[in-house]
User: Fold ATP-binding cassette domain-containing protein from Actinoplanes sandaracinus.
Amino acid sequence: MITFEDVVKVYPGGATAVDHLSLELPTGKMTVLVGPSGCGKTTSLRMINRMVTPTSGRVLIDGRDVAGQDEALLRRGIGYVIQHAGLFPHRTVLDNVATVPLLLGETRRTARAKALELLERVGLSAGFAKRYPAQLSGGQQQRVGVARALAADPPIMLMDEPFSAVDPVVRAQLHAEFLRLQQDLGKTIAMVTHDIDEAIKLGDHVAVFRAGGHLAQFATPRDLLAHPADDFVADFVGRDRGLRSLSFDTASDLPVKPVDGLELDEAGRPLGWPGPDGLRETGGVFTKEDSLRVVTDLAIRSPVGIAVRVGPDGAADGLVSHHDIADYLASRRS
Ligand SMILES: Nc1ncnc2c1ncn2[C@@H]1O[C@H](COP(=O)(O)OP(=O)(O)OP(=O)(O)O)[C@@H](O)[C@H]1O
Assistant:
């Protein structure tokens, strides 16, 4: 666990960058620090690995003040990923990743073998190993940056806007890969972003900062969306952010119930819901490829609160109510 205990940072001649921050980042989870530009996110992140020293207050890792720890030893346990990856331009991809194991005393052979394994983990085949960073796309460079940060197998990872330099499509791929990786690795991660959608998608917890280095709210994404602490957070999160966040995921894993009570034609296609005044339209149907937002919208608009799923032939093959969707969303968070 990483603990900020009443931490203040005032840069020389500057305003207060971080103002009485108290925060706990749980072990094995990803905490995202989010907020508008200049609100102290990066400063807070860098106090964890002692790149920045607090003016007052303490930062502790598993109860031990980082201030008293040997800097080199401390940083060995803390991977660091930044925007544009920050790779060594004159070293190959393989050597970029192998640098840390080499520094830690591994033989060149073992370090390189480890680097290759890590590159594969982040989705880069051996073919990339001999290239130089400039010969990679932005997304590939970010992957190398993540592999390099993982090379010492640090229990903690600090990530400063790691995905913001790539286009939205690549970013979405990196998000998906990163979530898979984290599921396997269970690192304690602190990530900075200014993008609330990214924070909600990736974070187990989200810390929303406001100008002047104040922590406005620390909550799970679900709580943040459901119960913003004040007008600032509500505004920052946006009124429809809850629904919008559902656009990120498809309904492929959403459990459905057997089709029951729905009027069908001979081919099994939905005709409508029987009611006292005849059939009521379903208001549309969804497939496994549709987003959870589409399904939720259908369930809400449905005259009976139930969305109808169809297969490739248009035949109804499952039903889901908005209660089922809420249960499913809750189970994904736990
Ligand atoms: N080395 C420094 N010297 C003086 N002031 C600094 C220094 N680094 C940051 N600041 C100031 O501290 C405040 C917080 O900066 P910080 O980089 O932590 O914010 P941030 O939320 O990460 O911003 P951004 O999203 O723009 O990166 C800003 O007002 C910034 O100008």
